[in-house]
Amino acid sequence: MLTLTDHINLGVVWTLDMLAICLNLLLIGVIVLRTPVQLRTYSVFLLNNAIIDLTTAISSALASTRIIINHETQTSLFVFLGPCTLFSEHLCRLCQALLVNLVTQSSIVLLISFLYRLYIIDVAATSRSPLSSSRIWLFCSISFLLITPLTYGYYLEETDVSQEVLNRFDLHGYTVSNYNIFSTRSLVVNSVVCVISPIVFMAIFVVRRMLIARISQAVS
User: Fold this and answer.
1) Which intervals hold domain G-protein coupled receptors family 1 profile (predicted)?
2) Best CA proximity match to 176, nearest among 159, 164, 189
3) How many CB atoms lie within 10 A of CB 11?
4) Of 94, 87, 22, 107, which is closest to residue 65 (Cα–Cα)?
5) Predicted TM-score (pTM) of this structure
6) What per-residue confidence (pLDDT) applies to 165?
């Protein structure tokens, strides 16, 4: 049975997630139906990020995870409060894995979009043919494949919880998974994410500075 704290948690999470779902559905509709022909190619990036954000919000709403730190075993307990518990514990684990790793995916697509803008300036200067929408979809798909092993590794690390742990934290009746943050697989997954994210954001900063410089040069 859900406690008062659980209900408050669900209320906050679902308010934010439903708002995000509605806004991203609206954004996807605007991108698909109202994008001018001249911007159709670039809109692929906007559409990809909107889909990623929508998937993240849906995953968050389905899982509605409460996290408990088990200091004795140095593990995290994911207590799932959302509607994923009505279907399968494996769905809850997948939602949690997607929620964690799609943030990295979104930043990678953002970096590719900045690189594309830089590329377009070079195309305009050299009269080369710009990339087609299908190629941009291909690049975005490849970036998604890069985080798939991380998501799968995170999912596999979510394991069953012992009866002893359920008794200790009074979690009977809840759907709970155990995440060992110090296992080899978990250390690899988290290390890769911790390395990729700063590199991607630093690259975005550098490319953005280059883009601003190119635009200023073109205007002057």
Assistant:
1) 23-220
2) 159
3) 10
4) 94
5) 0.89
6) 92
CB distance 121 to 100 below 8 Å: no
Q: State which H helix or E strand residue 39 sits in.
A: none
Contacts of 136 (CB under 8 A, 6+ apart): 41, 44, 45, 116
Residues of the chain with confidence (pLDDT) below 70: 1, 124-125, 127, 220
Please state the domain extents for the chain: 4-219
Superfamily of domain 4-219: Rhodopsin 7-helix transmembrane proteins (1.20.1070.10)
State the pLDDT at residue 125: 66
CA dihedral 184, 56, 205, 213 (to 10 degrees): 150
What is the edge-to-edge ordering of all strands in the sheet holding 75-80?
A: 65-70, 75-80, 175-180, 158-159
Take residue 181 and report the two structure tokens written for it. Answer: 């943050």
